[in-house]
TrEMBL record:
PANTHER family: COMD, MAJOR FACILITATOR SUPERFAMILY. This is MFS transporter. The chain crosses the membrane at residues 51-69, 81-100, 106-130, 142-163, 169-189, 201-221, 227-251, 272-296, 308-329, 336-355, 361-382, 403-421, 477-496. Pfam families: MFS_1. Keywords: Membrane, Transmembrane, Transmembrane helix, Transport.
């Protein structure tokens, strides 16, 4: 029984696995639980104009830290950085709960994001290392369930805590949960055998360039077309700095002995195919999370009153998709699984494009279920293919890169999607300006379609219905981007070749393990 769980007894494995799942739930829930409490926070701290930075700073710092965390865990051990990430995350949570101004809250959210950037990728690496290679569909289902749970219960939990206690407790709740995880990790998680050579180091230049490039590009993508025009000096400056830093980073890493992102991984067809498909999955997943609720609440006239309700069918099918994938990867190639996931999601987005604005909620749910199945499959096959295709000496960097590419795809996709939808809506408003009696002229350049619709909720029924139709048309126009991403991912799947998980190429530059160490594969 011990060999099935990477050298751990079944009892010890199950307790450790539960603690790691709780760790994933903690970090994933953090985004959704804050959303419903944010209006109260903004009112008390008087920081409406800075509201978006509560989410933006967390995303920036966590994404920038993700690949660095993976590489550090390869060199110096998973356990030490898992504990460090959890400690920073919990301290950041307590600081957020004690914030007395929006500026303090934003700074503390940035600290918390650093902790999450360390915690999330290393947790994923350990989870997929400990999962038994055969008969692991139950563990895969449990693993994916935390993502569905965070999106489904997050807004409700946040609202309950805020109304019954205080918004500060949505952050303080991480303290007792974090302590439980801390004890489990310290007592049950063995040190991995991938210990560094005497001169092993990733230096300072590579991580510094990666952080500078990532922060600059993501910040430009998040604020471009919203807070600043794309042609404005701040956005152009960020894009130039980000582009130069990224190019310098890539060139420097090609010469590094211990690169933060081992680019040799891309010589492996399974890795290269999986990373491209994961990038496309990020575009689809985050685009769906942002704009399907907009389509439901805006175009359908508020048939679903909450974002959680609008996304519940999709997120539940993410879990079912992971379960399905857990069975399929035992029988079929990586190529088949990636292609099937992209085919399901792509078909769902194509159906979204051609749905009538007055579509029934039942039909919409069925389409969202199709999209969720594809996304769930790709999340599982992406992590599993990469984790099983490399040796422990580079597993942290390899698996953290999956999360990194998914986040980059999400930010890039939502930025492009926002620009497409807003530009399309502005064109439609101008085209129908005569029918709207000057409303289009008042709106000007649209940066928040739903706010634009709600601000004119008192219009005559005919004009309000026309605005809803235009909003639906604009969002459906943007869904072409997600359908295109699915098509690219489908094509990338065929680059993976005919490998199956039991006949993957040999591990890349395998490092010998110490004989007396318990290895987290």
């Amino acid at each position: 029984m011990e060999s099935r769980f990477g050298g751990l007894t079944a009892r010890r494995f199950h307790w450790l696995f539960a603690g790691l799942l709780l760790s994933i739930l903690l970090t994933q829930l953090d985004q959704t639980i804050v959303s419903t409490a944010l209006p109260t926070i903004v009112t008390q701290l008087e920081g409406f104009t800075q509201m978006s930075w509560v989410f933006t700073i967390y995303m920036l710092t966590s994404t920038a830290m993700t690949p660095i965390a993976g590489k550090l865990s390869d060199l110096y051990g998973r356990k030490v950085f898992l504990v460090l990430g959890l400690t920073i995350f919990v301290i950041g949570s307590v600081l957020c709960g004690s914030a007395q101004s929006m500026l303090q809250l934003i700074i503390f959210r940035g600290i918390k994001g650093i902790g999450a950037g360390l915690l999330m990728p290393i947790t994923f690496t350990v989870v997929f290392s400990l999962m038994p290679r055969n008969g692991n569909s139950v563990y895969q289902t449990l693993y994916m369930s935390v993502f569905a749970l965070s999106s489904v219960i997050g807004p409700t939990v946040g609202a309950l805590i805020t109304s019954l206690l205080s918004w500060r407790y949505i952050f303080y709740i991480n303290l007792p949960l974090g302590l439980v995880i801390f004890v489990i990790i310290l007592k049950l998680l063995p040190r991995n055998a991938a210990m560094p050579k005497p001169d092993a180091s990733i230096g300072y230049v590579g991580p510094g360039l990666l952080i500078l490039g990532t922060l600059s590009l993501l910040l430009a993508l998040k604020t471009g077309g919203v807070q600043y025009a794309w042609s404005s000096l701040p956005i152009l400056g960020l894009l130039i700095v980000g582009g130069i830093a990224t190019a310098w980073f890539v060139l420097s890493q090609l010469r590094e002995k211990e690169p933060v992102i081992p680019f040799r991984l891309f010589r492996n067809r399974v890795m290269a195919s999986t990373y491209v498909a994961t990038l496309m999955q990020g575009i689809m997943m985050y685009g769906a999370l942002v704009y399907i609720p907009l389509f439901v609440q805006g175009s359908l006239g508020g048939g679903v009153t909450g974002t959680g309700g609008a996304l519940t069918p999709l997120m539940l099918c993410v879990m079912f998709g992971a379960t399905l994938c857990g069975a399929l990867i035992q029988r079929f190639t990586w190529r088949f699984n990636i292609a099937l996931s992209m085919l399901l999601s792509g078909t769902g987005f194509l159906m979204m494009i051609f749905l009538p604005v007055n579509v029934s909620y039942v039909v919409l749910c069925l389409v969202m279920m199709l999209i969720g199945l594809g996304i769930g499959m790709m999340m599982m096959v992406g992590q599993t293919a990469v984790s099983m295709g490399v040796d422990d000496s580079v597993r942290g960097a390899a698996t953290s890169s999956v999360s990194f590419f998914r986040s980059i795809g999400g930010v890039f996709g939502t930025a492009v999607l926002t620009s497409l939808i807003n530009a399309r809506l502005s064109v439609l408003l101008e085209r129908h300006s005569g029918d709207l009696s000057g409303v289009a002229g008042e709106l000007g350049v649209v940066t928040d379609p739903l706010a634009a619709l709600n601000s004119h909720a008192g219009l005559p029924a005919e004009q309000l219905e026309l605005m809803r139709q235009m909003l639906g048309d604009a969002v459906q126009y943007g869904f072409w981007l997600m359908a295109g991403a699915a098509a690219i991912g489908f094509i990338a799947a065929f680059w993976a070749g005919s490998s199956r998980q039991e006949v993957l190429p040999p591990p890349l530059e395998a490092a010998p393990a110490k004989a007396d160490a318990i290895t987290i594969r």
